[in-house]
Design goal:
- It is a single chain.
- The protein is α+β, with helices and mostly antiparallel strands.
- The chain is about 30% helix and about 30% strand.
- The N and C termini lie far apart (about 55 Å).
Length: about 160
């Protein structure tokens, strides 16, 4: 039986990694309880979006530049992953909490990609300390990207969506 559990755990972890990539998430943490004293804690995160490589480049600028000609393409791919936060149309989280894209389970989402929004329209909710905080659109425009999933944990300053 333990071998079967191990195989299902590996499949579960692979599915989490795919979910992380498909939804452009930086980190995902799940606890799976099997019984009273048996559980699995999994944390899957992306290494490319961590600020440590930037600090390494500042500490030793000559080494990464000298070794970077072959790595220039991966660096170019990493910049779009970091781009949403610096995008002029980015709407960022004003607090730490949990994101909800709909008013209640089963209800339609507040906004979808391609929707036109006006300044002040509710884009989503961030729950912090059992308080539901409606996040309004800071300006009117079209929702170009939604960067978070329903139920995802966010930090202060996390880009939530792009409005142009």
């Amino acid at each position: 039986m333990p071998n079967k559990t191990h195989e299902t755990d590996v499949t579960f972890i692979k599915a989490l990694a795919e979910l992380l990539n498909e939804n452009d998430l930086t980190e995902l943490q799940v606890k799976r309880d099997y019984g009273e004293n048996d559980s699995l804690n999994v944390r899957v995160s992306r290494r490319q979006e961590v600020a440590a490589p930037v600090a390494m480049q500042m500490a030793a600028p000559a080494a990464p530049v000298a070794a970077a000609p072959a790595a220039a393409a991966p660096a170019a791919e990493a910049s779009p992953a970091e781009d949403p936060a610096s995008h002029p149309g980015a709407v960022t989280s004003p607090m730490v909490g949990t994101v909800y894209t709909q008013a209640e389970p089963g209800a339609p989402s507040f906004v979808s990609v391609g929707d036109q929004v006006s300044e002040g329209d509710t884009l989503l909710i961030v729950e912090a300390m059992k308080t539901m905080n409606h996040i309004p659109a800071p300006r009117g425009g079209t929702v170009k990207r939604i960067l978070v999933e329903d139920g995802a944990a966010v930090e202060y300053g996390t880009p939530l969506m792009i409005i142009e």
